[in-house]
Write a structure and sequence with these properties.
The protein is mainly alpha-helical. It is built from 40 helices and nine strands. It has a five-stranded parallel β-sheet, with helices on both faces. Strand 3, helix 7 and strand 4 form a beta-alpha-beta unit. The chain is elongated, with a radius of gyration of 33 Å.
């Protein structure tokens, strides 16, 4: 590298960075969208038709929300599946069967967008799916507006069904869905199937007539419907009195009637059977399930009980868990006998048990084989891990209570999840541990601290950082970090939450620990160290570290953006505007390529572009870039204040140059608050802030020099003369002709007593104009 900061011709940095492979860190085959989750239930022979409810649903096309809300076993999913297949409904359906793993905004919206893409390929949502795979997807401001704009253009409407919505508890998920509801175009209707009222503005939707509700009273079976179900399932014919008795005892509960119908198969005295049981729903379920299970061979009962720990299953998974070798045959038999097995896809590969039946089976398993339950979960975890389904593997190993194995799996995979917008999943995993467990396992503290840092949660980060630093964990970490010592150094060096000197020293220490150029941690350490050196004013040392980071084999997208953007800022300081522009353009290109344009981590790319535009005298363009940088950081600030501060200071400078004193003053005060919180080692930044404050103080006075006063327009022209813009380009910036600019320039030279553009800029600085 030459003293002027240019790269050597045979090693162009920008070309190297354009070839960076993919987003942050590696991307293993995360099971982001299981086909069975997007598959609506198929029609079954024994289902009882409900024409009145179907007509009500089909006739409610103008409602934004259809809420099907009732306890378990009331046929909610069955009703909506019948609606989907009914000839009275012409619209398309997008279906998502939710589970507890979807209580993560990134995963929830991945499945929603995938389901809509499956139902409406013309939506062309590939860019939205890519945006959801970023480390910090901006769902409310980017994904939902993008989805709404595409849905608004649909020619054929679609119905989006979210089944089992009661598993969603995360507040941000509810807020995001409410945002979708408020902006819902007529081409989309939302259907929520749930056991509990969702945390949505139901009262408002109800008041304005934008919601249709189907609840327990509407879903109860009448005696005629009960008779149809009993006959379809068992062939039995009950008397009117027995039917009335059955409906009364089950309170019209469809699941209870269905279970009764199964037990009535071949029963010699149907009426006597109906009169045998009483009690609440749980008693009925237990009683009828015992009746059904008691008629199965012991091998089938054991298979059912042992596989009941699985939310969904296929034959190979069942064989691995139950220790069988004929699961495919057993599943086929169970489906033919209608024994509570529900197919989840058209190929009959994936199944689930009826929810209530599964609850009875798991209760029986816990009673009969309590010591086997953890073993079964371990087997399921091993199968899922070997199949590349990390989320399910972790869920089962956590259910097994195997803390060491749980921690190891999370530590091996957490960074891949957060890199595709699944930080919420990692946080949910960590919430399953007690504080004592995390404190006892430094690897767990390591994962919890990074999840907190990436989510902008200072309290848990500060709680677990001392655990990491005190750890005696030996050897390389499962996520590729060389040691716990490196983890702690990078946390302090990347996020800078203990001030600039600690940030700089910690990042420097990390560069000495992470020495493999192929590792993303190597590049992260050097990029963080380079940025901290830049903030400290050591541009030459910063440039060396950033060049090293940018050229290493492990340079991932977000690290490349940080390195390139900071190098561009350094190039502007050295006056090498062409190189600065090339570096900034490449950084923006990386952000655009991987759908990180609105991510806070990409803000430095816009700060760098703004610096280039300001140096060229294109102040309005510079202002737009700086505002975009600051806005993206403010809406999701995270743990580090330093990139935000950098954008704020340059935005304040441009606002002063444009005469926007009040707004600039607010930014200066905000910047001072940051430096007051972190006062150590910020001399360079404080000096920048002090210069801005002096310029702000000089702004109100009339600018005069040599007894002549510059007009406001002449001041504007003088500011633009500082850059590299031609008179024609300055005219375009100010919306005046080149001749007008030339006239203003001549007046400026005369009033300032100079004869050249460069001297006019120098005199303008002396006079306090610039």
């Amino acid at each position: 590298m030459s003293g002027g900061g240019r790269t050597q011709p045979d090693r162009p940095l920008e070309r190297a960075l354009r070839s960076v492979d993919g987003p942050e860190f590696t991307r293993p085959g995360l099971n982001l969208a299981i086909e069975s989750k997007l598959h609506a239930p198929g029609i079954r022979r024994e289902w009882v038709q409900r024409p009145r409810l179907l007509e009500e649903l089909a006739g409610a096309a103008s409602a934004k929300l259809v809420l099907v809300d009732a306890p378990a076993g009331f046929g909610k999913t069955t009703l909506v599946a019948q609606w989907r297949s009914s000839p009275v409904e012409r619209r398309r359906f997008a279906w998502v069967s939710l589970d507890t793993g979807d209580d993560d905004p990134g995963r929830l919206w991945w499945h929603v967008v995938s389901a809509l893409d499956r139902a409406c390929p013309e939506l062309e949502v590939r860019d939205l799916l890519r945006a959801l795979r970023t480390q910090a997807p901006v769902i409310a401001d980017d994904v939902i507006p993008g989805l709404v704009s595409r849905l608004a253009g649909l020619q054929t409407p679609v119905i989006l069904v979210l089944d089992d919505y009661h598993v969603i508890r995360e507040r941000s998920c509810h807020d995001q869905l409410a945002s979708l509801l408020f902006h819902l175009p007529p081409s989309l209707q939302l259907v929520l199937i749930t056991r509990a009222d969702p945390r949505l503005p139901l009262a408002r939707l109800r008041t304005i007539g934008d919601m249709v509700e189907i609840r327990m009273p509407e879903l109860r079976f009448t005696p005629l419907q009960a008779a149809a179900l009993v006959h379809a399932v068992s062939g039995a014919e009950l008397t009117a009195a027995d039917l009335a008795d059955l409906v009364e005892r089950t309170e019209g509960w469809p699941a209870g009637i269905y279970l009764a119908a199964l037990s009535l198969r071949g029963h010699p005295e149907p009426g006597a059977f109906v009169r045998q049981f009483t009690g609440n729903h749980h008693f009925v379920v237990d009683f009828l399930a015992e009746e059904v299970l008691s008629r199965q061979p012991a091998t089938i009962r054991q298979f059912l009980a042992r596989t009941s720990i699985l939310d969904r299953f296929c034959a190979p998974l069942c064989d691995a868990v139950a220790g069988s070798d004929n699961a495919a045959d057993i599943l086929g038999l169970l489906e033919r006998e209608n024994l509570f097995v529900v197919p989840l896809d058209d190929t009959r590969r994936w199944y689930r048990y009826h929810h209530l039946f599964a609850q009875v089976l798991t209760s029986q398993l816990a009673r009969d084989e309590p010591d086997t339950v953890p073993v079964l979960h371990q087997r399921a975890s091993a199968w899922y891990a070997a199949s590349g389904w990390v989320d399910e593997a972790i869920g089962h190993v956590l259910a097994a209570g195997d803390i060491p194995r749980s921690v190891e799996l999370i530590a091996r995979n957490w960074h891949a999840y957060v890199s595709v917008g699944r930080a919420g999943t990692v946080r949910a995993w960590m919430r399953l541990f007690t504080d004592d467990q995390i404190a006892a396992y430094p690897l767990a503290a390591h994962c919890a601290a990074w999840a907190a840092a990436l989510s902008g949660e200072p309290e848990p980060l500060r709680r677990w950082l001392p655990v990491i630093e005190a750890s005696r964990y030996a050897g390389q970490m499962p996520d590729g970090l060389v040691s716990m010592e490196s983890s702690a150094a990078l946390l302090r060096g990347v996020y800078g939450f203990d001030g600039l000197p600690v940030m700089r020293e910690s990042a420097r220490h990390a560069t000495g620990l992470e020495t493999d150029p192929r590792s993303p941690w190597y590049t992260l350490a050097r990029a963080a160290y380079g940025f901290s050196l830049y903030l400290s004013g050591d541009l030459e040392a910063a440039e060396a570290e950033l060049e090293d980071a940018a050229r290493s084999d492990g340079c991932a997208t977000l690290i490349g953006i940080l390195a390139l953007s900071t190098l561009s800022l350094i190039a502007v300081e050295r006056g090498d505007i062409p190189r600065a522009e090339s570096l900034a353009d490449t950084a923006r290109g990386l952000a655009t390529r991987d759908d990180l344009s609105e991510a806070p981590q990409a803000s430095l790319a816009y700060t760098a572009t703004g610096r280039v535009r300001a140096a060229q005298g294109r102040l309005h363009e510079a202002r737009a870039e700086f505002e975009r940088a600051v806005w993206s950081r403010r809406r999701k600030p995270g743990m580090s204040p330093w990139a935000t501060l950098e954008g704020m200071l340059w935005l304040a400078q441009v606002l002063l140059d444009l005469g926007e004193s009040a707004e600039a003053g607010g930014l200066i005060d905000e910047g001072q608050n940051v430096l007051s919180e972190f006062p150590e080692g910020v001399d360079v930044l404080q000096a920048r802030l002090d210069r801005l404050r002096r310029q702000l103080a000089a702004r109100p006075r009339v600018v005069a020099y040599l007894g002549n006063t510059l007009t406001e327009r002449e001041v504007a022209v003088l500011r633009l003369l500082r850059g590299t813009m031609s008179l024609r380009e300055i005219g375009e910036e100010l919306y005046v002709s080149p001749n007008t600019v030339k006239t203003h320039a001549q007046a400026i030279y005369r009033k300032l007593g100079v004869s050249s553009r460069q001297d006019a800029v120098l005199r303008g600085r002396d006079a306090g104009v610039l």
